[in-house]
Specification:
The protein has strands at residues 6-17, 24-30, 39-40, 50-58, 67-71, 83-93. With 97 residues, it is mostly beta strands. The strands form two sheets. Strands 4-1-6 form a three-stranded antiparallel beta sheet, with no helix packed on it.
Length: 97
Amino acid sequence: MQLPAGAYVLKLDASLHDALEPARIHLALEGTDAELPQVELTDASRGKWTTLETRFRLAEPATAETALSLSIIGADIPAGAGDFYLDNIVIERADPA
């Protein structure tokens, strides 16, 4: 994923189901030094789609070898079970080119 240095917003649609307690999604841009904030699922609605977003800045450009990584850590899900869905993950430039 090639991205020039600058400010970005990452948006994703999330939907919680079953008895899932709110969790957080850990984000990383593999191959960069960028530190992406976590996305909290506490703002997602149960049984319907909610758009969540987080902002980040790249000091150095991302290259074609850069990959977006999303992970959930078991300790972040208090009940330890349940379903959630993610869709429409988009990274957009937050400042003019």
